[in-house]
Design brief:
By secondary structure, the chain is α/β, with parallel strands linked by helices. The chain folds into two domains: 263 residues, Glycogen Phosphorylase B (Rossmann fold); 188 residues, Rossmann fold (3-Layer(aba) Sandwich). Helix content is 38%, strand content 19%. The strands form three sheets. A nine-stranded mixed β-sheet has the order 3-4-5-2-1-6-7-11-12, sandwiched between helices. Helix 5 packs across helix 7, helix 11 crosses helix 14 and helix 12 crosses helix 17. It is globular.
């Protein structure tokens, strides 16, 4: 049985800021169902709900070096949904509100990465594969190579590093090299950690990893070019034969319109007419005109530029003034986009509901109620929203980039193939044309039912992707040390 330790900065149901948490919370379950021994390690944040912290067992404590510092590290264990989770405890670093954004994040996550390697003897679990996710865990690969590979128990360990979003790299002043990481200046080279006279954690994680993956096939190709490569495209081209794109899945038990306790009315493909009840109830809840024949278009997203909101801003007034459609927005983010939707809601109260907060229950209700899901991203490594929308029979409109291109196939009215609508250029009027095309087909009920059926029968559970990850683990085990 292959032993794998997932190292992540967040995972549902404990803490979440984005799609990384969904992956770290759901992929291990599928891998274990396939016969793997996959465990997960996370920081023990203050934000973790008490119902979980109260159920944790204290394993023990160790001292972790952070360069010249010696820091306390408590180790906790929790069995949840047949997965073993470990939590790294240090009040100084993790006893704070929120997860990221502190001045000492470089030190906090350096401690976490070093603690992961130091704790292995204490938990009596030496994995064959350390599977690390994004920049917060990249130093596990660096420390394993520089400090631990000479030790017999650590020598066989192989590393897989998954890039969820290349934009966020963990770049810090070069003084962290010696003062925080405890590494010599011989590692401050363009081939390793140096990045424009700073230290780049993600770069180090990529260089030190045995294999690299990212969260869609298209994104794996895109990041080898300057526009998407965030100044690491040269390194990724150099390692292209060690880089594989594997599309994310979603937890089909959590996101199941047939059993979802958070929606107004449950339904499946055979009872798809019940989806309309969700729409009518949501219209009532959000003070929109209750109209069963008006298409409802949803935006559930972080309200930030890369999500394509500039395109929406450019044509929103035109959409609301002239299209017979309702828009429901849920999310928070940059002030300019929050203000955009709040102003539009004030100007067109019968056309747009702006919910500038995040609420998981409302998100489920919106996915179940809406007819169309709009996701015109500038770039999107994988995307979770369109996968949930497909599961709920809410037809996605996306721009053809990253995981959106890999999961949404544009509907062809002549062949009946395709599970959504898409456009390729980052252009507001291309998006507007695509929205209008989708709305026209929405009013052709037999054809719309075909699109919805194609959406709901698309399979983006973890089964296929888990097998691809297992293939990478097996490849790592076979490689000569």
């Amino acid at each position: 049985m292959t032993k794998v330790l997932f190292v992540a900065a967040e995972a549902v149901p404990f803490v979440k800021t984005g799609g990384l948490a969904d992956v770290a919370g759901s992929l291990p379950k599928e891998l274990n169902r396939c016969g793997m021994d996959v465990r997960v390690v996370l920081p023990k944040y203050k934000n973790i709900p008490e119902r979980y912290t109260a159920a944790m067992d204290f394993v023990g404590s160790i001292i972790v070096p952070v360069s010249w510092r010696e820091k306390y590290c408590g180790i906790y264990r929790l069995q949840h949904e047949n997965i073993t989770y470990y939590f790294i405890d240090n009040e100084e670093y993790f006893g704070r509100d929120g997860l990221y954004g502190y001045w000492d994040d470089g030190e906090r996550f350096a401690f976490f990465c070093r603690a992961v390697l130091e704790m292995l003897p204490a938990i009596e679990f030496f994995p064959q594969v350390l599977h690390c996710h994004d920049w917060h865990t990249a130093l596990v690969n660096v420390f394993l190579r520089t400090f631990y590979k000479r030790l017999p128990k650590y020598r066989p360990i192989r590393t897989l590093f998954t890039i969820h979003n290349l934009r966020y790299q963990g770049v810090f002043p070069k003084t962290v090299l010696t003062d925080v990481l405890g590494l010599g200046w011989q590692h401050f080279t363009v081939k390793f950690l140096e990045f424009y006279d700073q230290v780049n954690y993600m770069k180090g994680g990529i260089v030190a990893a045995d294999l690299i993956s990212t969260v869609s096939e298209t994104y794996a190709r895109e990041i080898q070019y300057p526009f998407f490569g965030e100044q690491l495209d040269g390194l990724l081209r150099e390692r292209q034969f060690d880089l594989e794109g594997i599309i994310n899945g979603i937890d089909y038990e959590v996101y199941d319109p047939a059993t979802d306790p958070q929606v107004f009315a449950t339904y499946d493909l055979d009872t798809i007419n019940k989806k309309e009840e969700n729409k009518l109830r949501l219209q009532e809840l959000l003070d929109l005109p209750v109209k069963r024949t008006t298409p409802m278009i949803a935006i559930v997203s972080r309200l930030v530029g890369p999500k394509g909101l500039d395109l929406i801003a450019h044509v929103l007034d035109e959409l609301l003034a002239y299209e017979d459609a309702q828009f429901v927005v849920l999310g928070t983010g940059e002030e300019q986009y929050e203000n955009l939707f709040q102003y539009a809601s004030w100007k067109y109260p019968a056309k747009l509901s702006a919910n500038i907060f995040f609420d998981d229950k409302l998100a489920h209700q919106i996915y179940a109620a809406s007819d169309i899901f709009l996701m015109p991203s500038l770039y999107e490594p994988c995307g979770i929203g369109q996968l949930i929308a497909l599961r709920y029979g809410t037809v996605p409109i996306v721009r053809e980039t990253g995981g959106l291109k890999d999961t949404v196939r544009s509907f062809n009215r002549y062949t009946g193939e395709g599970n959504g609508f898409s456009f390729s250029h980052y252009n507001a009027h291309d998006m507007l044309y695509t929205i209008r095309r989708a709305v026209r087909i929405y009013h052709d009920k037999p054809m719309w039912q075909k699109v919805v059926k194609n959406a709901m029968t698309s399979d983006y559970s973890w089964q296929h992707s888990a097998k691809q990850y297992i293939g990478l683990y097996q490849r790592l085990e076979k490689e000569e040390l």
